[in-house]
Specification:
Elements (H helix, E strand, L loop, with lengths): L1 E5 L2 E7 L15 E5 L4 E6 L2 E7 L21 E9 L7 E4 L4 H9 L9 E3 L9 H6 L7 E2 L2 H9 L5 E6 L1
Parallel strand pairs: 3-10, 8-9
Antiparallel strand pairs: 1-2, 3-4, 4-5, 6-7, 6-10, 7-8
Length: 167
């Protein structure tokens, strides 16, 4: 069990990771699907979405990420490979971008592919209004959700969950 501290002081929230939860408390996704054009994140189980969340993307959401600083969210098949409860955002789960193909393509173009692509909540120290974060694409290439949605995603995904990011 872990206590999380938020920007408003102690958040009275106890999180249990999927590994220590009792079976049946929460469904655990066997895949995450992102539909960039629809601004949706789907938690999947046995090929069916059991939860769907509204998302914000990189500042330039159309197209695949090709290099560091292009403000695009990558497209393709990856994994959720690590978690950070001490992120500058309200929780974050790392997407395994870049893979070997992304690195090869970027290197052929003389670019750095970038990295640190996450699914995360809102900034712990916001610089914009709450409405802005709810209605605009605002990340550097990450996938952002509300803090309450981030709790659900955190609880309903495990290590190495496949993620497919579609145009």
């Amino acid at each position: 069990m872990q206590l999380l501290y938020g920007q408003m002081g102690l958040v009275m929230l106890v999180l249990m990771t999927p590994a220590v939860m009792q079976a049946g408390e929460f469904p655990i996704a066997d895949k995450v699907v992102i539909e960039k054009a629809m601004r949706k994140l789907h938690l999947m189980r046995n090929g069916k979405a059991f939860r769907t969340f509204k998302i914000a993307l990189g500042l330039r959401p159309v197209g695949d990420k090709k290099k560091e600083g292009d403000f695009k969210t990558p497209e393709g098949s990856y994994y959720l490979d690590s978690r950070n409860q001490d992120s500058e955002f309200f929780l974050s789960i790392r997407v395994s971008y870049p893979d070997a193909e992304d690195v090869r393509e970027a290197n052929q173009s003389g670019n750095d592919p970038g990295g640190a692509i996450m699914i995360h909540g809102q900034p712990n120290e916001p610089t914009r209004s709450e409405v802005y974060y709810r209605t605009q694409d605002w990340t550097n290439g990450c996938i952002a959700v509300s803090n309450s949605d981030m709790i659900d995603i955190w609880l309903m995904t495990g290590e190495n969950t496949p993620i497919e990011i579609r145009p």
